[in-house]
Request: fold
Amino acid sequence: MSKKTREAKEGELREIHALESLERLSKRPESRMDVQNLLENLSEHGKIYARHLITSGPSSLLAAAKACKLKVAEIESALTELETKIKLLKS
Reply:
């Protein structure tokens, strides 16, 4: 019997990557404060979205928008902001 898998929903793979990056950086003692500062310095929508991502895990952009009471475009913008700040932190 084979397991059924589903295709990732829009944004899900990006969310998984962002969350994994945050988790890896948070485990390194020299990066913990940087991660905390990154999260504190996000835009208001970015903070709402990051809180949702960290507590609820990856989901579709539509599901995240509903959970955060934001528009899909606002979630997508918040995800892009988070990805950009993670890249800066890694470099």
